[in-house]
């Protein structure tokens, strides 16, 4: 899909196509549509990211809370979004054994209890054994740093999703 096609989309089509660039936050795509035309993928992406950066902390935490846990209940129940399902299975999180699942579930719960939002990591850039390791490491980070790190992961996920849609180069991660 080229950028001219993106710029020609009406509101409904744009939100249908880009509504899950940021997980379960179609409001962001709705706001970004108003800022067209976009010059290229980088420009489009910048509008998504500027929106996130411009939110107050409560809004940024809200975005994180829209993310399903990695290897969590929604994966077991089959209720993930298509994008999330692809990312989590690509990282091998659909084939954990019972011990690995239990360990991740405990760590996810500890993380959520400490920070008040779920642990977020761009699963496509991680392998399965790195996920609990990274979770255990980030569990001990100061909350302000962790908010920044988690939003950085949201942006990596968004960049990869946009590149999937537009056929761009996600190399700058
Ligand atoms: C996710 C998700 O759904 N896809 C991904 O890359 N990361 N969730 C999460 N909590 O990190």
Could you walk me through the main structural features you see in this protein, from its secondary elements to its overall organization?
This protein is mainly alpha-helical. It folds into two domains: 3-62, no CATH class; 68-153, Orthogonal Bundle (UraD-like). It is 63% helix and 0% strand. Helix 8 (98-115) packs parallel to helix 9 (130-138). The protein is globular and about 50 Å long. 1-(2,5-dioxo-2,5-dihydro-1H-imidazol-4-yl)urea (2AL) is lined by residues 23, 67-70, 84, 87-88, 118-124, 157.
Task: List the SSEs and their pairings.
Elements: H1 3-7, H2 11-18, H3 26-33, H4 41-54, H5 57-65, H6 73-77, H7 82-90, H8 98-115, H9 130-138, H10 143-166
Helix pairs in contact: 2-3, 3-4, 4-10, 8-9
The protein binds 1-(2,5-dioxo-2,5-dihydro-1H-imidazol-4-yl)urea (2AL).
1-(2,5-dioxo-2,5-dihydro-1H-imidazol-4-yl)urea (2AL) binds next to α7.
Name of the CATH architecture of the largest domain:
Orthogonal Bundle
- Which stretches of 5+ consecutive residues score pLDDT under 50? none
Please work out how many helical segments DSSP would assign.
Answer: 10
Structural class: mainly alpha
Overall mean pLDDT = 95
Query: Biggest β-sheet: count, sense, barrel?
Result: none
Q: Round the Cα radius of gyration to an integer and report it.
A: 16 Å
Distance between the termini: 21 Å
Give the % helix: 55-70%
Strand content: under 5%
Task: Supply the CATH superfamily name of the largest domain.
Answer: Oxo-4-hydroxy-4-carboxy-5-ureidoimidazoline decarboxylase
Kindly provide the name of the CATH class of the largest domain.
Mainly Alpha
Q: Which hetero compounds are present in the coordinates?
A: 1-(2,5-dioxo-2,5-dihydro-1H-imidazol-4-yl)urea
User: Any idea how many domains?
Assistant: 2
> How many β-strand runs?
0
């Amino acid at each position: 899909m080229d950028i001219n096609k993106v710029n020609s989309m009406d509101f409904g089509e744009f939100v249908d196509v880009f509504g899950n660039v940021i997980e379960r936050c179609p409001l962001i795509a709705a706001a970004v549509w108003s800022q067209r035309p976009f010059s290229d993928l980088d420009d489009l992406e910048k509008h998504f990211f500027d929106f996130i950066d411009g939110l107050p902390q409560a809004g940024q935490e809200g975005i994180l809370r829209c993310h399903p846990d990695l290897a969590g209940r929604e994966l077991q129940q089959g209720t993930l979004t298509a994008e999330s399902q692809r990312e989590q299975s690509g990282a091998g999180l659909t084939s954990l054994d019972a011990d690995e699942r239990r360990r991740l579930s405990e760590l996810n719960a500890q993380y959520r209890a400490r920070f008040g939002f779920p642990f977020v990591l761009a699963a496509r850039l991680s392998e399965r054994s790195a996920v609990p390791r990274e979770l255990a490491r980030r569990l001990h980070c100061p909350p302000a740093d962790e908010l920044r790190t988690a939003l950085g992961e949201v942006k990596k996920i968004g960049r990869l999703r946009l590149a999937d849609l537009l056929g761009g180069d996600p190399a700058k991660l």
